[in-house]
Amino acid sequence: MTGLRAQNKADRSRRILESASRLFREAGFDAVRIEDIAQDAQMSPGTVYNYFSTKGDVLLAIVAMEVEEVLVAGEALVAAPKGGFEASMLSLIGGYYDHSLNYLSKAMWRTAMAQSIAAPEAAFSTHYTSLDRRLTEQIVALLRRLSETGALRPGIAPEVLGEIIFNDINMMFIEFVKDERLGLPHLQRALQAHVQQLARLIGPD
User: Fold this and answer.
1) What is the CA radius of gyration of the chain?
2) What DSSP state is assigned to residue 30?
3) What is the SS3 string spanning the chain?
4) Is the pTM for the entire model greater than 0.90?
5) pLDDT below 50 — which residues of the chain?
């Protein structure tokens, strides 16, 4: 019975987030009310408020849903890297990028980023930062595995390199969401150029 209640709760939360994602895309974050999300999800506003106190909480939950899915997808690659540094990193981070617009538009990403910066001590910001940290940790985990297989030059510190790579790909993603004219192929080409250059610098002698 407890398992069924938990499943029903997860299903309702998912319905709320899917409705919110669609409405935020169509009308814009500022124009959508909790009541609109409730109506689209076919539940009462009170039920939505039981799950999320504000629209900002809903947006963060959508970001978290996005990140959780790419992390799960990346686990298999970390466990069994595909090729060396270049191939593995392009596969992992390319997957992050390919999934980035599944639930969020560029405008939604900009809103989430702005909220995380505007109030760095707020719960929204700290949770957003924790998601970034988990992505960094997965990159580091892949680098550790590659180091164990001899795919990295001796002396390379996976923890430091992982932070460098995440900061680089995060900045590329920020520039991508700032410009509505840029498509995912542009982002993937930029990623490939950066990873190829890194591979020349840190690959085994």
Assistant:
1) 19
2) T
3) CHHHHHHHHHHHHHHHHHHHHHHHHHHCCCCCCHHHHHHHHCCCHHHHHHHCCCHHHHHHHHHHHHHHHHHHHHHHHHHCCCCCHHHHHHHHHHHHHHHCCCCCCHHHHHHHHHHHHHCCCCHHHHHHHHHHHHHHHHHHHHHHHHHHCCCCCCCCCHHHHHHHHHHHHHHHHHHHHHCCCCCHHHHHHHHHHHHHHHHHHHCCC
4) yes
5) none
